[in-house]
TrEMBL record:
This is methylmalonate-semialdehyde dehydrogenase (CoA acylating). It holds the Pfam family Aldedh. Residues 17-479 form the Aldehyde dehydrogenase domain. Its EC number is 1.2.1.27. It comes from the Bacteria.
């Protein structure tokens, strides 16, 4: 059985707790590895060592730190396929999708090469007589990243690029469900020139997370995961005076206006709803066609597309549309919610409940589901299902559709499909949601913009990546300096005694 250890002081470090978690191959349902779960004492020791290593790293000039990022870009590209294979085998997503996971993280490392520019402060000359004022951005010290299973490369890299390039040391606590890729990332950072101890990977569960939250040394916590845990981490981090940005779950609506290109909208919905088995925080899980006729046309276009979806293991080739979900518990939860939808009166237009894949009967595969005539009081509407289940809520008007998206407790992403610029502009301006797509179903901003949801999808200030991340991982110091007039007042042409 493969053992996955912590990564401490630049090398693999077997855990001492005697506790491990199973890492599955979601396609077969078999346990393929055991990952160590850290104790509080192990986490504390990793943090203390990181604090020592951070002193020198924080004092290293930003351009040298940026060179580590440059080399990291080369190494991630070099090892892309190897990492993507490991990612697919532990997560279950298809090989091209796993490469996308790494690529979107790599782009934030590319952005972090700009650290010297992003870390510049402000300066005003002559704020008063002989007075200048300037600000500097300094690293926080040791910061922590607690990340989810669904993007085991991208989200750690989103945290590591800006945090490390700003001069911090990082304690990364990745998801225990697919922990190998974060270790591979740590090994690549070492190869890229990052000093030992500046990046520590501790694997674990609540015990490790609580040790991070209670540490006096940790200055900031970046979390991504489900909303109840995001809220818990935000509150507990605040109790010990830490900065926290905690991103949570989602229920992303896509509005389809009567004038939309219906083929384009249906293609977009199928990709955004079922890609990665719906295990994306930016997946579209609610389609909101405006008007009965639009709804009928949309369903007519969706059904054959969904029925044609190819579900299978990543090893079956690149034409697989999506793979298994991450655990048996996730599969059971999805199917339980589907049953609830049927009980509560939603119309199950595409029924994936009996889906089974020959040769992979024990794998965590879930067939695609499409619900029509879902209403806001149903559990399948209120809950984040995080599986290949798309719900359709029919709206009578644009205002009703907008209201649905706005009244939902989550506010991560949303999209509108229309040919009308006025409707699109109004939607983007008025909705209370962090990321908006106009004829784009999954509007994940590029590395040089920032990523973050509103409402219960995001707690705290400042978003991930882009300039916000550099603000999150640094604190500002403002200096007022006055140099009274002195030596320049009169030139001296002879040696003077020091009287
Ligand atoms: P999760 O909340 O179960 O786990 C996230 C992290 O928290 C993991 O590292 C896990 O070990 C830790 N954790 C779990 N339970 C804990 C507890 N009781 N106490 C302390 N720590 C705990 O989330 P997940 O299932 O790994 O990821 C899926 C969720 O993440 C979905 O809700 C998805 O929408 C969300 N997500 C959000 C974003 C975003 O940017 N908003 C991005 C990706 C995923």
């Amino acid at each position: 059985m493969r053992a996955i250890h912590h990564w401490i002081d630049g090398q693999e470090a077997p855990g001492k707790s005697g506790r491990t978690a199973d890492v599955f191959n979601p396609a077969t349902g078999e346990v393929q590895a055991k990952v160590d779960l850290a104790t509080k004492a192990e986490v504390d020791a990793a943090i203390e060592r990181a604090a020592e290593a951070q002193v020198k790293w924080g004092a290293t000039n930003p351009q040298r730190r940026a060179r580590v990022m440059m080399e990291m870009v080369r190494l991630l590209n070099r090892d892309m396929d190897k990492m993507a294979e490991m990612l697919s085998s532990e997560h279950g997503k298809t090989f091209p999708d796993a490469k996308g996971d790494i690529q979107r993280g790599l782009e934030v490392i590319e952005f972090s090469i700009g650290a010297p520019h992003l870390l510049k402060g402000e300066f005003i000359d002559g704020a008063g007589p002989g007075i200048d004022m300037y600000s500097m951005r300094q690293p926080l010290g040791v910061v922590a990243a607690i990340t989810p299973f669904n993007f085991p490369a991208m989200i750690p890299l989103w945290k590591l690029g800006p945090a490390l390039a700003s001069g911090n040391a990082v304690i990364l606590k990745p998801s225990e469900r697919d922990p190998s890729v974060p270790n591979m990332i740590a090994a690549l950072f070492k190869e890229a020139g990052l000093p030992d101890g500046v990046l520590q990977v501790v694997h674990g569960d609540k015990e490790a997370v609580d040790a991070i939250l209670d540490s006096e040394i940790i200055q900031a916590v970046g979390f991504v995961g489900s909303t109840p845990i995001a809220q818990y981490i935000y509150e507990r981090a605040a109790q010990t005076g830490k900065r926290a940005q905690c991103f949570g779950g989602a229920k992303n609506h896509m509005i389809i206006m009567p004038d939309a290109d219906m083929d384009q909208a249906a293609d977009a919905l199928v990709g955004a709803g079922y890609g990665a088995a719906g295990e994306r925080c930016m997946a579209i899980s609610v389609a909101v066609p405006v008007g009965e006729e639009t709804a009928d046309r949309l369903i007519e276009k969706l059904v054959p597309r969904i029925e044609k979806l190819k579900v299978g293991p990543w090893t079956a080739g690149n034409d697989i549309d999506y793979g298994p979900v991450v655990t048996r518990a996730a599969k059971e939860n999805i199917l339980r919610l589907v049953e609830r939808g049927v009980e509560q009166g939603a119309e199950l237009v595409v029924d994936g409940r009996d889906f089974s894949l020959q040769g992979y009967e024990d794998g965590f595969f879930v067939g695609p589901h499409l619900f029509d005539r879902v209403t806001p009081d149903m559990d399948i509407y209120k809950t984040e299902i995080f599986g290949p289940v798309l719900s359709t809520v029919r709206a009578a008007s644009y205002e009703e559709a907008l209201g649905l998206a706005m009244d939902h407790e989550y506010g991560n992403g949303t999209a509108i499909f229309t040919r009308d610029g006025d409707a699109a502009r109004d939607f983007a301006s008025r909705c209370n949601i962090g990321m908006v797509g106009i004829n784009v179903p999954i509007p994940v901003p590029l590395a040089y913009f920032t990523f973050g949801g509103w409402k219960k999808s995001g707690f705290g200030d400042l978003n991930q990546h882009g300039p916000d991340a550099f603000r999150f991982y640094t604190r500002t110091k403002t200096v007022t300096s006055r140099w009274p007039s002195g030596i320049k007042e009169g030139a001296a042409f002879n040696f003077k005694a020091m009287d």
